Amino acid sequence: MFTKLTSGRCDAIGANRFQKSLRIANAGASAVILSAVILAQCAIAQGQNKAKKNDQDDLKNANSVFVPADRDLRRVLDGARQAMEEKRYSDAISSLNELINPSQADRSEMEDFFLGTGQDELPRISIKLEAERLLCDMPKAGRELYELQYGADARKLLDDALKISDVKLIAEVSRRFLHTQAGYEATLLLGQHQLDRGHPHAAILAFTRVVESNSAREQFEPGLSLSLAVAWIYAGNNRRAQELLEELREYDGNATLELGGESTRLDAEGFDTLAWIQKRFGQRIEPAHNSVNQWTMFRGDGTRTAASQGGLPLISSSNPLVNCRWQVPTANDKLLENAIDSIHRQYLASRLPALPSLQPLAVGDTILMRTIQRVIAVDFNTGKRIWYFGEPDDVNYSQSRTGLKPSRANQGSLMFGLYQRVWDDVPYGQLSSDGQHLFFIDSLGSANRGPMRKQLVMPMGLFRQNPLWPKSHNQLVALELPSEGKLKWIVGGETGEEEPGLAGVFFLGAPLPVEDKLYVLVEDKREICLKVLSAQTGHVEWSQQLTHLDQFAVGHNVLRRVAGAVPSHSDGVLICPTTVGAVVAVDLATRSLLWGHQYLQLPKLSDAPYRPPLFLSNRCYHTPCIRHLRI
Q1: What is the distance between the alpha carbons of residues 468 and 395, in angstroms, rounded to a whole number?
Q2: At what angle are helices 181-196 and 200-211 packed, to 10 degrees?
Q3: What are phi and psi of 492, to 5 degrees?
Q4: Residue closest to 491 by CA, chosen among 536, 451, 429, 556
Q5: Are 562 and 622 in contact (CB under 8 A)?
């Protein structure tokens, strides 16, 4: 009885003391009392050790920028593990499903968290992925019970999705009910869909989720491994495809490959499986490197490595202005043009490569560009302005248009604002488009105060709040391109505008459009988060925390504020910079964290002095570039 109730180190200590007590005390009652005391001491010690371990984990996580899973979530996961060990599969399934598919109305989509996020440990396992792994490793009795509880709901959802050919609904079945029969089928359909679209790495992610389940392999082999091998071949990795086929041969050497009425056994003498697949499916033809004929976002496409289909310039004069087909100034005002020209000459005198931070887009026959005053659209063929949006955000600009010179007190604010707007303010200068809409950050104050005044002196001695004063929040704006810049929606700001859930957030950069979604990084309540918005409405569809903020907020950190941060995308994986010394990968199909990497952080500067010429030479972009699966 005693040895069954205790374990580990407490067993040995307790047994020795128990035997000694029997020798000293001949009364059975004394032995029972002593063993009960020892049991209680062992239980207390185990509880203290567990609490100490949790405290050590918390201390370890304190050195990381990644947000650790709270104790409630870890308790649910530990409870599921214990229930599986005790063969209480119903309890384990309920706990694991709560992590993957929460039932509470206010947690319709639970955010994911890393397990083991200390600096000495690369966080590669998340709560959701660990919950899926435990469901995958569940014995047959547990899997049958899981199918009984959730199989019917998954089947109905999949049938509804197939009736209307809704890929998003199929993805929902895969995400919420992977380890059901319908969930496996949905995931295989998603993998085949990605393969047909020319996204082999996204197909690999989908097929791998299924092939890791032994119960799924029993049903879908050898076709499952065959599909995964084809995906690896199309991804250009024949070696991995060969290894996978060898694993299939070991798994079931009697398997028969059937295609086009032709069948071949894997164990046939001299049969080269890889050559057989390549003959029937071919090799992937590597397309021209991300060549695009439109420029709809920063650096061309989601990988941020696109190349345009350009030609050699026609040079007819040593003066570059003569060679221009047309030109549109970024400041349609003589006073501002002179000020910009003066700053430009300073950069030339300092021998600094003064590249502007204003990044134009090419969508169809329209050039979209940001000026220091507004957003404008220009006809590509004629150079004529088609439409514009917004009013000047600095009262000095309004004064210059009326012929009034800015007051001496406002001169510092004017020059300071021009330095940032034209050359350094990356979030302000970047735009993005999905072909139908234009997205950009608005109501963006300056990076720091510098020589700026909070109140500006107006004519007649009046004072007005400086709109370029640093702010802790901003707005995201969407315009309709077919209707010549008609306002579609505005979100963010102090109230959130059309999406209350975005009240008070700071958008770190222009959103990344992928299909009908917008992926944008924000700073919200001392956390860096990924927000996924509907491109049509601007409403939040789901969100994912990435890191906590262990330094000054973006409104008080010059480097983070002017550098901004925009995500990159390739083959179903979103790469998110955080501006706080870490980069995080998110699997969009499962809405889970794939991995996180923490690197050397920049100095935690607050309101540091702003020195434009010096800072320009060290400009940085928080924009990952993806090429050949490397970041």
Answers
A1: 9
A2: 160
A3: 95, -160
A4: 536
A5: no
Sign of the C-alpha dihedral computed for residues 174, 177, 182 and 184 taken in this order: positive
How do beta strands 568-570 and 540-548 pair? Answer: unpaired
pTM: 0.81
Burial of 607 (0-12, 13-18, 19+ CB in 10 A): middle
Closest CA to 373 of 344, 405, 398, 410: 398
Tokens of 56: 């050590």
> Cα separations (Å) of 429 from 293, 408, 470, 489, 523?
21, 28, 17, 20, 19
What tokens were used for 514?
């992928």
pLDDT band for position 213 (50/70/90)?
very high
d(CA 429, CA 369): 8
d(CA 379, CA 362): 10
3-class secondary-structure state, position 20 = helix
Measured between alpha carbons, how far is 123 from 425 in angstroms, rounded to an integer? 33
The 10 Å Cβ neighbour count of residue 490 is 17
d(CA 274, CA 581): 43
Strand pairing category for 262-265 and 291-292: unpaired
Nearest by Cα to 212 from 131, 132, 140, 125 = 132
Burial of 317 (0-12, 13-18, 19+ CB in 10 A): exposed
d(CA 500, CA 540): 9
Q: Judge contact between 233 and 277, C-beta under 8 A.
A: yes
Rounded Cα distance, 38 and 43, in Å: 9
Highest mean pLDDT among 46-50, 277-281, 339-343, 471-475: 471-475
Residue matched to tokens 């697949």: 277
Helix axis angle for 223-234 and 181-196, nearest 10°, is 30
Separation of first and last alpha carbons in the chain: 58
Query: Is it the case that residue 9 has pLDDT exceeding 60?
Result: no
Rg, Å, the chain Cα set? 31
What is the pLDDT averaged over residues 122-136? 85
Tell me the C-alpha distance between 197 and 572, whole Å: 12
Q: What single DSSP character describes residue 423?
A: I
Instruction: State how far the alpha carbon of 195 is from the alpha carbons of 7, 15, 177, 225, 438, in Å.
Output: 51, 62, 22, 14, 30
Q: Please report how the helices 273-281 and 223-234 are oriented relative to each other, as an axis angle in degrees rounded to 10.
A: 70
Single-letter amino acid code for the residue at 322: V
Q: What is the pLDDT of residues 549-583, one digit of tens each?
A: 877 788 778 888 888 899 999 989 999 999 888 99
Comparing CA positions, the residue from 8, 117, 133 lying closest to residue 56 is 117
Q: In the structure encoding, which two tokens stand for residue 324, read together? A: 């221009």
348 Cβ contact list (under 8 Å, min separation 6): 354
What is Dmax (Cα atoms) for the chain? 113
Distance separating alpha carbons of residues 454 and 474, to the nearest angstrom: 17
Determine if the peptide bond prior to 467 is cis (ω within 30°): no
Percent of the chain as helix, strand, coil, to the nearest 5: 40, 20, 40
The CA distances from residue 629 to 75, 200, 300, 590, in Å, are 36, 12, 18, 19
Q: What's the rounded Cα separation, in Å, for the pair 71 and 511?
A: 33
Instruction: Please give the Cα distance from 178 to 187 (Å, whole number).
Output: 7
